[in-house]
Structures are given as structure tokens and as C-alpha cells.
Design goal:
This protein is mostly helical. The protein has one domain. It is 64% helix and 5% strand. It has 8 helices and 3 strands.
Length: 276
């Protein structure tokens, strides 16, 4: 049983996020790291289950993508229900229009990474599969951002914003080791962990800076889409493109880090019933 105390800046006695001027959801859960890990595993379990179902059914590439999308959609809905039942409002988790887009350079670096991958990998799947991947990436982006930058971030934010940014990013990266169960080799899995952690870092920084999950959701979906339709290619041109995108991401992370480093928490804590 977790003893839950929830800090929500939506209450009359709360103070706004000093960067985004938005109320920010924050859960005070003991023990916070165990709770964060438990909630972070939820989308992983749903993805693993959907992946197993796709493999057992012998579905085509498009069929498998739609099966995975269904699993991600169910997981995302569950995450939204958890948000809705918690004392903070759903919009306080970040489901609102972003502010301070100028401080985030209008998200141009994020868009640039997507264009780099599209330009170097191109499109290597047929039209029906492209459509199926479109459905998949929308479901996956909503699912993973809801859980990692929404719920997990709120749990760790009670300790500090920096803890939430770093902790949610590390969990997002480490849990990509689940790809080993799908047959991925160790080397590529480790690289994906590092990349996912970097992506998660920027996504969390964007949440802190803009007060919104939508920029990260849009970027997440767009990145996955161009990667999937490009067949996750590993030829020399594609790898050069991936390297260039990573350089842009590192620079963007450094910029956002400077612009969010002055962020301080002014949240007040309110008591809530213990969760079973």
C-alpha cells in the first residue's frame, strides 16, 4: 500500500510553475522511486503483451502495427483514467496549450531532427503499412508521454523538478532494454537506451519550460513515424543522418537545460486518502 499525498498547484493555495506559469501536477508518494518504477512498467507491459499477440497471430507488418497500436491505446486510456481520478486536474499534467514556445526556439530543433531522418532514410514501406504506422505512432506517443512525462514525472516532481527531469528520462531509457525480449541484440539495445534517455530528457525539459505535453507528444510521434517508414535503416547514409540528429538533440538539450535550470518549486501539499 502506498501512502499518497498529492501536491497540485491547481488548488487555491498553490503557486504556479515559475517557468511556464501553469499549475503543475505533483504526487507525493512514499516510496517515490518504487512508485515511479511501478507506474513506468505499465506501458511496457501493455506493449509487450500486444507484441506477443502480434507475433502469435502471424500478422503482416501492417497488422502487427495495428495490434501494437491497440495495446498502446488501451494503456494510454488507462493512464488518462489514473490522471482523471487523481486530485490534480488532467490539464495540470500537461494536457494544455504550450506556452513559452519562443524560449524553446519554437520547437524548430525538434522538427529538424525529424526532417534529417526523413531526408536520409526516405520511405521504404508500402502505403498500407505507412497508414498503419501512422496509427501506431500516435497511440505510442500518447501512451508513453502520458505515463512517463505525465504520471511518473508528477511522482518524482514532489522531490524536485530536477529529480523528475533526470529520473523520468533514465527510467524511459532503461526500460527500452525490454527490446532485448523482442530479439534485439545487446549492442543496439544499449544504444537505444542512451538515445531514449536523451529523447526523454528533452521531452521532460519541454514539459517544464512550456507546461505542456503536446510538444513532446507531437515530436515523439513524428520521430517514430519517419523511423518506421524508413525501415529503421542502418546503411551508412541513415547512420550519418541519425548521428546528425543526435548532435542537434544534444545541443537542444543543453539549451533547454540552461533555460530550465533556474526553475524552483513553490508547490503546496494537500492531503489525500491513501491508495490501496
Amino acid at each position: 500500500m502506498y501512502s499518497l499525498r498529492v501536491s497540485s498547484l491547481s488548488s487555491p493555495t498553490s503557486t504556479p510553475d515559475l517557468l511556464s506559469n501553469h499549475p503543475a501536477a505533483s504526487w507525493r508518494v512514499r516510496p517515490p522511486w518504487l512508485a515511479a518504477i511501478a507506474f513506468a512498467l505499465v506501458p511496457v507491459v501493455f506493449t509487450a503483451g500486444a507484441s506477443a499477440a502480434a507475433q502469435l497471430s502471424g500478422a503482416s507488418e501492417a497488422g502487427a502495427a495495428l495490434t501494437l497500436a491497440a495495446g498502446a491505446a488501451v494503456s494510454a486510456i488507462l493512464g488518462l483514467v489514473v490522471m482523471r481520478l487523481s486530485p490534480p486536474r488532467v490539464r495540470d499534467y500537461g494536457f494544455r496549450r504550450p506556452r513559452r514556445a519562443r524560449a524553446a526556439l519554437w520547437f524548430v530543433p525538434a522538427a529538424a531532427t525529424v526532417l534529417i531522418i526523413l531526408g536520409t532514410q526516405g520511405v521504404r514501406v508500402d502505403a498500407p503499412t505507412v497508414a498503419a504506422y501512422g496509427v501506431l505512432v500516435a497511440a505510442v506517443a500518447l501512451n508513453e508521454e502520458t505515463w512517463f512525462r505525465g504520471i511518473v514525472f508528477a511522482i518524482l516532481r514532489a522531490r524536485s523538478t530536477r529529480t523528475a527531469v533526470v529520473g523520468s528520462s533514465v527510467l524511459f531509457g532503461v526500460l527500452h532494454l525490454a527490446n532485448l525480449a523482442g530479439g534485439a541484440d545487446v549492442g543496439s539495445s544499449i544504444l537505444q537506451v542512451a538515445f531514449a534517455a536523451l529523447f526523454g530528457l528533452i521531452a521532460a525539459q519541454l514539459l517544464v519550460l512550456t507546461g505542456s505535453l503536446w510538444p513532446a507528444i507531437a515530436w515523439h510521434a513524428a520521430w517514430n513515424f519517419v523511423s518506421f517508414i524508413g525501415g529503421d535503416a542502418t546503411d551508412s547514409r541513415s547512420l550519418i543522418g541519425l548521428g546528425a540528429a543526435c548532435v542537434v538533440m544534444l545541443g537542444y538539450a543543453a539549451l533547454l537545460g540552461r533555460r530550465t535550470s533556474s526553475r524552483s518549486d513553490g508547490s503546496a501539499t494537500t492531503d489525500a486518502p491513501a491508495l490501496p
